[in-house]
């Protein structure tokens, strides 16, 4: 049997890493961060346990990367959904709504993510998944008309992170409608733009199948 080419090996590594990211999101969403072990993640992914440490320094970094991957794919799907729009205001509205909906549908996962950002000694992990998310948010502010996307993108990121934190704060969550209205006011968006998240109590989308966000 001929040895695998470098490109085939690279593709196999990419798929292996993707499976670990998907497994991490699924398990933290189901059980919470503390109840999820690296061994659990490797088993769910069908990977050898040693592969986890090969790709990630630890559980906190793996979970951060996994959630950033989910956020990136959620945002990408929202921006490219039909009917597609190149209008900067519509794209900004879709971006805001996508992140708010993610927090509404997956409060446990997003609460654990926010706690991890605050508790991790290394802080904010500049992983490839976070960088792709950042590029998409930067493009969003640029299309919205920003004269300085490099300065305005971190502000959008901070505002979205603040809104997510407010939504998932135990015992004192803010209503998604209030946060959406404030973000829309901040960016001069009409309320009919975007795709409003389902009101609390209606069940939202709550689609537990995350596989489409990690499709190869």
Automatic annotation (TrEMBL):
The keyword Heme does not apply. Keywords: DNA-binding. Residues 37-56 bind DNA. InterPro entries: DNA-bd_HTH_TetR-type_CS, Homeodomain-like_sf, HTH-type_TetR-like_transc_reg, HTH_TetR. SUPFAM superfamilies: Homeodomain-like. Residues 14-74 form the HTH tetR-type domain. It comes from the Bacteria. The keyword DNA-binding applies. This is TetR/AcrR family transcriptional regulator. It comes from Streptomyces heilongjiangensis.
């Amino acid at each position: 049997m001929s040895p695998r080419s470098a490109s085939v090996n690279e593709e196999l590594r990419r798929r292996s890493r993707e499976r670990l990211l998907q497994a991490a999101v699924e398990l933290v969403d189901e059980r919470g961060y503390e109840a999820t072990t690296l061994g659990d993640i490797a088993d769910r992914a069908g990977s050898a346990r040693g592969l986890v440490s090969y790709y990630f320094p630890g559980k906190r970094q793996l979970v951060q990367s996994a959630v950033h991957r989910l956020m990136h794919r959620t945002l990408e799907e929202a921006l490219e959904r039909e009917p597609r729009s190149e209008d900067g205001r519509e794209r900004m509205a879709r971006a805001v709504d996508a992140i708010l909906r993610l927090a509404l549908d997956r409060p446990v996962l997003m609460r654990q993510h926010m706690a991890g950002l605050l508790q991790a000694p290394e802080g904010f992990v500049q992983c490839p998944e976070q960088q792709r998310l950042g590029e998409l948010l930067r493009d969003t502010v640029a299309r919205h008309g920003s004269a300085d996307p490099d300065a305005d993108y971190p502000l959008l990121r901070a505002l979205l992170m603040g809104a997510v934190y407010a939504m998932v704060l135990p015992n004192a969550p803010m209503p998604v409608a209030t946060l959406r209205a404030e973000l829309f006011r901040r960016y001069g968006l009409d309320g009919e733009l975007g795709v409003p998240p389902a009101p609390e109590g209606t069940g939202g989308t709550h689609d537990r199948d995350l596989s489409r966000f990690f499709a190869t």
